[in-house]
Amino acid sequence: METATKVNLLDFAPAALTAWFKELGEPAFRAQQVFKWIHQQGVSDFSAMTNISKALRARLAEIAEVRGPEIVMEQPSSDGTRKWLLRLDDGQCIEAVFIPESSRGTLCVSSQVGCALDCTFCSTARQGFNRNLSVHEIIGQLWSTEHRLRQESGGERVISNVVMMGMGEPLLNYDNVVSALKIMLDDNAYGLSKRRVTLSTSGVVPALDRLSSEVDVALAVSLHAPNDDLRDQLVPLNRKYPIAELLAACQRFLDSKAQRDRITIEYVMLDGVNDSPQHAHELARLLRGLPSKVNLIPFNPFPETRYRRSSRQAIDRFRDILYHKGINTITRKTRGDDIDAACGQLAGKVNDRSRREIHFARIEKAS
Ligand code: SAH
Q1: What distance in angstroms lies between residue 130's CA and the mean position of ligand 1's atoms?
Q2: Residue-level pLDDT at 77
């Protein structure tokens, strides 16, 4: 197919696009103009880029393209949440979820097709791991949905926040995720504030240490347990990077930039597993000294899971204990339940080609 050989310009963060234009013999400001057309205006047709010479437009149309994942299905939820099924070039599908609230609109973005981490309470894990997403597939989730939503709103920006909390472990697809984050933050693209872009990780410590020097975003850490015995069971990655190492890395992350105030600790509430008052006290002790806030996430069940969601009373009790210990704690509202778009339910359609352990070992070594 002709398009297969074209360069997809959604793959380029600003510096890389400038370098690509330089190879064409074009100055840096040209790259910036095209970058704005693509990301600010959502334009994919080079002939519409009217501040660029006709000759260059024709050349670009021959060798390049701007193509996000194709929206193949859209599912609205009764609470306003919308889930899109996006088809990638190889035919696999991923999901992106938009969560509107009165003061912001949040897009939940995926970083991998499936996931290699095998957290026991997550439905993505049960699908296995297939592959990393490319830069254009990651930023394309924002590009495709932002311009779709903008058309509906009469041109107004709708997505104000991005959370890397969809399928996959973002720090195991490090380079592509960092490039996509840079595009999200860039004023010539989406200009999202660094406090409104959140990367959520299970805790890949070496990659976390690299991250702080390369891109400035908010960090959420999926802790889910207050001790290593329990976390080893829920988040197997803990066997490689236990809690003490992870929290030390969180502290280094905060120390690396003066304006970073605190880290979000995510804690999924599993009935009878990690939700007792003792667990809350243990968590409070653990977080003493680390500037953090806690998000309690009521477990979202999926077929054949062995877990149940904690009761309202257990969640409130847990929250109150943390609160009295001086830890800012909120219970996350579950959104999009009726369309399986809530946390951990973004299963997509993944076939596990990877033999998870082998892949996991390889990526871990590389990071
Ligand atoms: N791999 C990354 C990002 C994806 S998961 C990470 O682990 O942080 C986004 C958040 O949803 C994580 O905190 C994850 O642990 C949580 N989650 C996963 N499955 C869930 C479920 N079934 N119910 C509630 N939260 C879940």
Answers
A1: 18
A2: 82
Rounded to whole angstroms, how far apart are CA atoms 54 and 113?
Answer: 39
Class of domain 2-65: mainly alpha
Q: Which candidate, 319, 280, 309, 253, places its Cα nearest to that of 121? A: 309
Tell which residue, 328, 268, 329, 337, has the closest CA to residue 298: 268
Is the pLDDT at 69 greater than 70, yes or no?
yes
For residue 327, give both structure tokens. 């830890």
Give the whole-angstrom CA distance, residue 326 versus residue 366.
39
Question: Within the chain, what is the greatest distance between any pair of CA atoms?
Answer: 69
> Is the alpha carbon torsion for 93, 99, 104, 108 positive or negative?
negative
Domain ranges in the chain are 2-65, 70-366
What are the pLDDT digits (tens) for 230-240? 999 999 999 99
Q: With CA atoms as reference, report the closest residue to 331 among 343, 340, 339, 341.
A: 343
Q: Output the residue whose Cα is nearest ligand 1's atom 17.
A: 344
CA-nearest residue for atom 5, ligand 1, is 165
Give residues (CB < 6 A) around ligand 1: 119, 121-123, 165, 169, 200-202, 222, 266, 268, 297, 299-300, 343-344
pLDDT at residue 346 greater than cutoff 70: no
Asked whether this chain's domains 2-65 and 70-366 adopt the same fold, the reply is no
Burial of 88 (0-12, 13-18, 19+ CB in 10 A): middle
pTM to 2 decimal places: 0.91
User: Domain 70-366 is of which CATH architecture?
Assistant: Alpha-Beta Barrel (3.20)
CA-nearest residue for atom 20, ligand 1, is 344
Contact 23, 148 (CB under 8 A): no
- Coil/strand/helix, residue 310: coil
Q: 67 C-alpha vs ligand 1 centroid, how far in Å? A: 29
Where does 90-240 have alpha helices with state H?
A: 123-127, 135-152, 174-185, 205-214, 228-234
Give the nearest ligand 1 atom to 301 CA: 22
Among all chains, which residue has been given the structure tokens 């800012």?
Answer: 328
User: Locate tokens 């009373």: which residue?
Assistant: 313
Atom of ligand 1 lying closest to residue 124 CA: 19
Can you tell me which residue has the tokens 């398009």?
3
